[in-house]
């Protein structure tokens, strides 16, 4: 059986990766998961300088998921190049580097630093607030999406995945804007904005008031958005949002995703990625599917 996929020109042994921010940069899970089994590892977001992140508390559980307002805490590109890339290079797995920034210049600085590094793909987190545009996220305005995609493509040496925010009226419009800017692939969804209130203390559960909602509760929204985007553009899609099982992953694949990412599930089941890979393989055996491509986008209106 063939589980390998070509994603934006990069060959992956299977379609399963990790969702950024849920797996560190690999080392945090290395004792629990054989990284050689994964199609790719997607790293935590990396910025041009270290970011301290938001004040605590910054994580809380919700029904069917969790909220996080970590604020993209990360050690910065210098530490990432010195420590995290060499660690991941020990394994037979793809490396997708998630990139974040507050301004176009900050993104470009990271992209340029990664140009001569041996990593496979760049995933650009455009859910970051754009400080020059009054704090609106890059990914919430199609003109900004197209422009930042085009600017990054001019400098990037690796294929560029634009990670779309679901906090928009029309996800297909954002996907088309990224495609127009020259994106090589798209990933979605990032977290949905949510809030939790502690009724006993009569205060917000998160110091940031709002946070990104992830986990099983977002999956139906994510599957719908992946399907809409796969229909709207010709780019390969990396689907994510509440994937815990092979069945979840296969929904995304049948909706049109070439690859899938396991995120929040890693927190309560470090083996989730491996279980998803094994489960996809078992589904293919049980249903006499020789090639994963028979399943990608097999559902049509």
In brief, what are we looking at here?
The protein is an alpha/beta fold.
Number of helices: 8
User: Given the helix and strand composition, which structural class is it?
Assistant: alpha/beta
| Share of helix, binned | 25-40%
Instruction: Enumerate the strands of the largest sheet in spatial order, edge to edge or round the barrel.
Output: 3-16-15-10-9-8-7-4
> Largest sheet, described in full?
8 strands, parallel
Give average pLDDT, whole number: 96
Instruction: Note the overall shape.
Output: globular
Classify the beta-strand content into a percent band.
15-25%
- Listing every helix as H and every strand as E from the N terminus to the C terminus, the arrangement reads EEEEEEHEHEHEHEEEEEHEHEHH
Termini, distance in Å? 28 Å
Provide the gyration radius in Å. Answer: 18 Å
Low-confidence stretches: none
List how many beta strands DSSP finds: 16
């Amino acid at each position: 059986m063939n589980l390998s996929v070509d994603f934006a020109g990069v060959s992956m042994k299977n379609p399963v990766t990790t969702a950024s921010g849920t797996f560190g940069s690999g080392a945090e899970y290395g004792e629990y998961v054989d990284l050689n089994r994964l199609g790719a590892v997607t790293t935590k977001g990396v910025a041009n300088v270290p970011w301290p992140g938001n004040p605590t508390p910054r994580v809380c559980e919700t029904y069917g998921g969790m909220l996080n307002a970590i604020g993209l805490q990360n050690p910065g590109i210098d530490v990432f190049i010195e420590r995290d890339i060499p660690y991941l290079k020990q394994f037979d797995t793809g490396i997708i580097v998630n990139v974040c920034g507050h301004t176009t210049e900050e993104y470009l600085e990271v992209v340029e630093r990664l140009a001569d590094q041996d990593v496979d793909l760049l995933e650009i987190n455009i859910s970051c607030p754009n400080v020059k545009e009054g704090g609106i996220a890059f990914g919430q305005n199609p003109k900004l999406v197209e422009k930042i995609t085009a600017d990054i493509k001019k400098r990037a040496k690796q294929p560029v995945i634009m990670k779309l925010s679901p906090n928009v009226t029309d996800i297909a419009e954002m996907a088309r804007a990224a495609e127009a800017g020259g994106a090589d692939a798209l990933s979605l969804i990032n977290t949905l904005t949510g809030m939790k209130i502690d009724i006993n203390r009569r205060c917000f559960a998160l110091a940031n008031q709002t946070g990104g909602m992830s986990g099983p509760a977002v999956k139906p929204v994510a599957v719908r958005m992946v399907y809409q985007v796969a229909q709207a553009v010709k780019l390969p899609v990396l689907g994510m949002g509440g994937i815990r099982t092979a069945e979840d992953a296969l929904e995304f694949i049948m909706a049109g995703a070439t690859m899938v990412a396991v995120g929040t599930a890693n927190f309560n089941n470090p083996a989730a990625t491996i279980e998803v890979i094994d489960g996809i393989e078992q589904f293919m055996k049980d249903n006499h599917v020789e090639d994963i491509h028979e399943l990608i986008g097999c559902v049509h209106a």
